[in-house]
Amino acid sequence: MNPATQPFVLSQPTQAFLHQPKRMLIGGQWVEAVAGQTFAVHDPAGENIIAHVPEGRAEDVDLAVRAARRAFESGPWATMSPAERGKIIWRIGDLLLQHADELAEIESLDNGKPRAVAYAADVPLSADMFHYMAGWATKIHGNHLSLSCLYTPGVPYHAYTRSEPIGVVGQIIPWNFPLLMAAWKLAPALAAGCTVVLKVAEETPLSALRLGELLQAAGLPDGVVNIVTGYGETAGAALAAHPGVDKVAFTGSTEVGRLIVQAAAGNLKKVSLELGGKSPNIIFKDADLDTAIAGAASAIFFNHGQCCCAGSRLYVEKSVFDRVVDGVANIAQKIKLGPGMDPNTEMGPLVSSIQQNRVCGYLDLGRQEGARAVVGGQRRQGSGYFVEPTVLVDTQPQMRVVQEEIFGPVVVAMPFENLEDELVAEANNSIYGLAAGIWTHDLSRAHRVAARLKAGTVWVNCYNIFDASLPFGGYKQSGWGRESSEAVLSNYLETKAVAIRL
Ligand code: NAI
Ligand code: MG
Fold first, then answer.
1. Which ligand has the nearest atom to the CA of 237?
2. Which of 89, 108, 256, 347 has the fewest C-beta atoms lying within 10 Å of its C-beta?
3. Alpha helices in 52-122 (DSSP H)
4. pLDDT tens-digit profile of 104-127?
5. What would the CATH number be for the domain defined by 280-467?
């Protein structure tokens, strides 16, 4: 059944899940926080409390790291064949799809995004990441090497590399795609044979707790994945600093990314980071403008602009600037705001009042700086953390609304003359380098500009195209390392060289 046509009621399994007491998954057991504290989880559309979850702190993280260590060193996971591991990872993907309705509802309630979007995008993409990574479990290997060791002439050696799991991994994820970010983190770590402590975002802990039950149902041994709910400054910081963690993988703000690096310095654990962005989306006048306009709107408004790769700086060739801005504004005007669970909703609330205030703070700042909202520009009155889809014009390159990540449904639109060098310099004038979009029918220009943009992903005549086989990550302050694809596996593997004198 198409969820968009279902009435606005929660399914039986979702109600049952919401009503059951929430615990953290540590060493295969569902446990409360050692200190017994909990915190409330809100529905951002109605501002109601929908659950309480344990407030995990340093002592809980420590228990989780110990459980992950035991599972890594001595549990069944440590001796399991790659094929067996792959089968379990595949089953996780299957279980996600079997529970798609319920997971989409939980995600919508907790995060605010439309249920139909969670059902069509978040859940299947999450399942796909497990299915894709299941295949890698049996394909991770080292190499045979031919030595010519100069100071032992004539001595034969047999030498090879081994790709070994890096060990116990701490993973810290944000609230914009709670289930999908858990999948992006867990699936490759499991394929590599690691064990994990996952610290979910305090705003959106629920889908990961349901995922934890599905991990157990898939046959994942105890302690291989431990899930901690808690705040960033306490639980997150403890995980990033823990001496028993071999590697930390983080997705979130660039500001906290820097704190993760500092915390990791204690035991020099390996670090990968997927951070912020301020991605340029460039429309040339020869593009198919109707497609480009729709693409530019979805590049910024998808997930309410709460995407690290949102196309938040829109560069449009001068002669078509007015037409494109009118087109995007027209789409923005028609977007139906409402609770994610309402089938008519096209855009839900932002995740929290903090995020709503942060985004509205940028709208005020933009006005003070001299920018003008062609459409939107306000929070919506009434309950729920809604912000109107907004297009800002009359900006200057150094304005903060042009330079800083807003992480809401706000795009700055700027005209450019047909001078490629200037355009590329302007597009690259950012501390970030996560993604970029190019809209043109000129094939040579598309390739030329794609090569010159300092961005980890370039989409041409499309935007927000994700696939488990595409690497994703940032240049500059958008991060270290890559997520997804074969490339992510190196985040979770160590290379060991073995040289044997024959
Ligand atoms: P954040 O970076 O504070 O939170 C992300 C995760 O990090 C959460 O799980 C949080 O608990 C954890 N965390 C926070 N402080 C920590 C610390 N000291 N040590 C370890 N873990 C810590 O992001 P926040 O505050 O939710 O949003 C602020 C801004 O960050 C947003 O407006 C947006 O610009 C950016 N952001 C970027 C995301 C991305 O996908 N790259 C996702 C979420 C936010
Ligand atoms: Mg924060």
1. 1
2. 256
3. 58-73, 76-79, 82-98, 100-111, 115-117
4. 999 999 999 999 999 999 999 999
5. 3.40.309.10
